[in-house]
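#struct-pred

JT: dropping the chains for the assembly here, can someone run the whole complex?
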Amino acid sequence: MTRTPWEWTKLIGFYALVVVIVVISIFPFYYAILTSFKSGTAIFEINYFPVDFSVQNYITVMTGRNFVRSVINSVYISGFTVLLALFLAVTASYALSRVRFRGRSLLLITILGVSMFPQIAVLAGLFELIRFLGIYNTPWAMVLSYTIFTLPFTVWVLTTFMRDLPIEIEEAAIIDGATPWNIITKVFMPLLWPALVTTGLLAFIGAWNEFLFALTFTISETQRTVPVAIALLSGASEQEIPWGPIMAASVIVTVPLVILVLIFQRKIVAGLTAGGVKG
Amino acid sequence: MFDFSKELDLEAQRRRAAFYFLAPMIIALFCVAAWPLLRTIYFSFTDTSLTNLYGGEWIGFDNYLQRRELSSGRVIWRGTLVDPAWWNAVWNTVRFSVISVFFETVFGLGIALVLNAEFRGRGWVRAAILIPWAIPTIVSAKMWAWMLNDQFGIINDILVRIGILERGIAWTASIDTAMTAVLIVDIWKTTPFMALLCLAGLQMIPRDIYEAAKIDGVHPLKVFWKITLPLVRPALMVAVIFRMLDALRIFDLIYVLTPNSKATKTMSVISRENLIDFDKFAYGSAQSTLLFAIIAIFVSLYIWLGKVNLSGEGNQ
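RK: done, full complex below.
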């Protein structure tokens, strides 16, 4: 196949653009990894390619302060938040997607509205509620407050997923005399597993990354979640920012997410765009 | 064969079940969203303090605007609405949201067009652009803070090497560049999301339209303006509103990347500062109530003017 010079220029230009997109996307993460493996003063020399391989920063992070504790807190909080949201969302989305009732559209819009809420607007009220319930500075404060964004999101996505399931399978079950509860557990759940995994994963990432509530509702270092721990990671003195350990901590909490995202790539894209582009 | 009254019965049974299915979710959302929101609005009309949440008294609109006449006869105004720090935060938020969403939309659409073309390694490129999205905001703020470091940052090094800068600048600390730094990080982090939404919109455009245009010899730029853009517009409108709402409430990136910088402090940052750090709980509540009102008005206008169908109903 022969190409004219103009076609060659277009082709090269196109691939150059692709390369620029890829490099800009992954460079900061690459550079964080590179920095995290530098030791001591080597960190203050600017290198574009790996020159050093020292795990010193990783040892500092894993043994120092309460970083491991923060990771455990984050896993626990995010996991519990997701289970709670999925549990409440499955039945609700069945009702929202398969049963016709008055005010359904209004309810859907309200749920969407809650997910777009500025979180600062509920901060004062939530602070009072959390103090009232006596769960300030405990993981439950986060589990409760994260529901404000995980629940609307899971309901929304599961509703769009369920709306696309064919009506016939449900009709058959109704004629057989199945109750709505049986329809959900016996007919829909087996079909919903992929959707549940996707929404669960996205909600997990949302909870894992949350910062404002976690910063406000915890006071002691042992109760911090990972983002708060990284944001407040400090060195021996005020001025000295421990860049090496910060980069190591960043890599530790990001690598699992990146791997998960790459594995579930297709599903995540489907989940993110569900509802978003249907209008 | 099919008893009509029994069918009605079934519908009623399903509706009743739907009510029970919805109740837990509605109660949960009421507790974590509606109730705290109402309490925040209530606090904004009191003089409640952080240390004494139940000791506040009703003071009307004083947190918003208060007229006070001094004994000398001079009138002074106080409250959020005449607070220069608040208006500075409003300006920062609006500036940040408009600029970041504009660039994210342009770049997102560009990347989506690239990914919509068929080429080898497309899956890998899509995977690569998901990485900024997957990295927690706090982590990306720290990564970029390090890359934008004035002395040891690689960005300054690159810019000095290729001769754009004479010497490194303090991106995050300097008043002039702090907002640029925040914008760079936000655009880097959120363009992938925009690109994916645009891509999903692009993929819904039937391919034969393009083939017809190709046969008719329509210029590619004209194809973009006359076919692609109008057809992708509904998806784009929804994506833009999602992003805009996210941008208007930004907190974490700014809090970590440029702490205490007057040039980047947004409405969320200043509200939290007053609520928690400065023990002006009621005053902070008034500011967060205003932010909520601004966002609510913006959403209503956008949906009304743009005729955006957010619910996706009646569209199947």
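JT: nice. The first helix of chain A runs from residue 5 to 36. Confidence is low (pLDDT under 50) at residues 275-279 of chain A.
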